[in-house]
Design goal:
Helix content is 30%, strand content 23%. A hairpin with a 4-residue loop joins strand 4 and strand 5.
């Protein structure tokens, strides 16, 4: 009976891992097909949520996610330490625009959180497997 329970738990665990891996494979890097003010505001809101900042304080380029599927945000330097003179020792935050069968989503790499983005039009993009750069 104990062996049967262990086998059942192992089977359920393997299925769960496979489903998680499958869901990650379903989403692929993407680019915006069009970018307008409403799209940038929606992206700013998500970035602000991920960074625990007000979205009004986040300025994004008009070309955000139109040339590359990555958005890198460098944190402001610590001005309280004069020895760093404008340097930030924190890793920059990385966001990735992805597309899956349900639409577009944005993933924050540091936290692995994902946000489904409604009314955003994006298309899958091929990336170089070695560098991750868009082709």
């Amino acid at each position: 009976m104990i062996r049967w329970c262990i086998a059942l738990v192992a089977a359920i665990t393997c299925c769960g891992c496979q489903l998680q891996a499958q869901s990650n494979l379903d989403s692929v890097p993407a680019l915006l097909t069009k970018s307008n003010l409403a799209d940038r505001q929606q992206i700013s809101q998500i970035v602000g949520d991920a960074l625990n900042r007000e979205s009004e304080n986040i300025r994004l380029s008009h070309s955000v996610f139109t040339r590359t599927h990555l958005l890198i945000i460098q944190r402001q330097p610590d001005k309280s330490n004069p020895h760093l003179y404008g340097l930030s020792l924190d890793r920059p935050d990385q966001f990735t625009l992805l597309k899956d069968h349900r639409g577009c989503l944005i993933r924050h790499s540091q936290s692995n959180r994902e946000w489904r983005v409604e009314n955003l039009q994006c298309t899958p993009v091929e990336t170089d497997q070695k560098t991750g750069a868009d082709r």
